[in-house]
Sequence to fold (324 residues):
Amino acid sequence: MSHPILLKTAALAGVVFLGFGAAAAEAGNGARILSVQHTVQAGALEVFIRVEGRFDFRFFELQGPKRLVIDLSPVEGVEVPEETEIGTYGVLRVRTGRPQTGTARVVIDLEDPAPIHLINRKPDGILAVFLPGKTAVSLPSPAETEPRPAERRATLLGLSLVNKSLSDDRFQVVFGRRTGTVPGVELSQDILRLGSWGLAAAAEYHRLSLEGQSTLTAVATSVTVSPLELALRVFYGQGAFRPYVSGGIVLCAYDELSPLRNTTGRATGFGLQGGLYWGPAFSRGLKARLYVKWTKATAVENGLEVSLGGTEVGAGLALALNIL
Fold:
């Protein structure tokens, strides 16, 4: 073998095949309020708040002056005027705002005494119905009795450029450098959502190849390291940003190709990662990604332990799809 300290790196331990689909679908990180419309029919005033995306809501009444408040979350955009005048059936106007990041508020200003009202969830928004009456009565909301739209979980398919640094100094003896920039692929699937927090399963793969000459024999030698990481990610989806942290196992295959001797093997370790996805408003299906990762995996050759892990920094793009 060209050098007893040489580790011999790479070979595929598992491949995740990712394909970028034809069309980008919305990731579901936040809903958007698209319009506020009102009509009078069948002796009642209907105010419809049209919402795109998955959302939760609550409503309550405030006094002095009389008003009905509807809070929606998570919401990443409000595309309606801040105020819409109505002036009928005891409803003065509808106002919209953002009391805090990720939450939208719709305020319906009422006359005193307030009209009878009914709040009803629809698949594409919220319907508020106001009936003429001199007594302020809030009818029970059937929102919880109607079937809610199935929660859609984001699938992310990504390509990245990965700058990899191997931690074992003995690689530099043969290859003169310990870093390289290579393409990487990822697949991430949301498996649980609790409000803005979520849990996802992820798989990532890349292949790093180094070439050099042994310092003892001057024989050309190449080493390939191919880590496959299987991890769980905890993320926080708020507006256009989705920061995350993750941890999992790393399956690392390695090959050393040399005229003197070829060596192939595998090592198992673990990895820790922190990163951020960002999706611009004009293209919510396309996400930019930045991350930093540290891995530890140790292989044994000829009684010597050689570290195949190290640090890596990556940047790339991911396509967000609603598959499940």
Remarks:
- Confidence is low (pLDDT under 50) at residues 1-28, 134-151.
- The chain has two domains: 31-144, 154-322.
